[in-house]
Design goal:
Chitinase A, domain 3, 2 domains, binds zinc ion, 9 strands, single chain, Thrombin, subunit H
Length: about 160
């Protein structure tokens, strides 16, 4: 069986940036289960896993445009300190979840003083060239319900 649309695929992977720093890894834990062809994972990786078989090792370079997008300087904004009511100390590097036009988004604090907070709504991996290195662990046909929901009912991403 090969990786194709409507297959539930499990991969082990290690994600590194252009400097070779490890950003994320499934090694030592459960593999990542996802439903192929439903944009569960970033497009550049999904495209390059197509047609692979169980046991295949892969090393995939993903440009920002096929990953988490390019950085957009317009997404760096100043907001009033009052917007963070209930938060005692705001420091650069802190992340908050907020509602954006496209749904939930994570913003990162760049700078903060008593009146204003500068936040960056770019994805932390926007503009970063990524490399995924790993292996295909299993492939199976998705169940009807999984195809309808658009995700795999297995693994850590499954929360209902
Ligand atoms: Zn579901």
């Amino acid at each position: 069986m090969q990786v194709a649309a409507n297959k539930v695929v499990a991969i082990h992977y290690t994600l590194t940036n252009g400097e070779g720093q490890v950003l994320d890894s499934s090694q030592g834990g459960n593999p990542l289960f996802y439903l192929h062809g439903h944009s569960n994972i970033i497009p550049g990786l999904e495209k390059k896993l197509e047609g692979r078989s169980v046991g295949d090792a892969f090393e995939v370079a993903v440009e920002p445009s096929e990953g988490y997008g390019e950085r957009d300087d317009n997404l760096v904004q100043q907001v009033q300190r009052e917007a963070f009511q209930g938060v005692d100390a705001i420091e650069p590097g802190m992340q908050f979840q907020t509602q954006g036009p496209g749904g939930a988004m994570v913003v990162t604090v760049v700078d903060a003083n008593e009146e204003t907070v500068t936040i960056d709504a770019n994805h932390p991996l926007a503009g970063v060239a990524l490399t995924f290195k790993g292996s295909v662990e299993s492939i199976r046909d998705a169940r009807e319900e999984e195809v309808q929901h658009g995700h795999a009912h297995e693994g850590d991403l499954h929360d209902h």
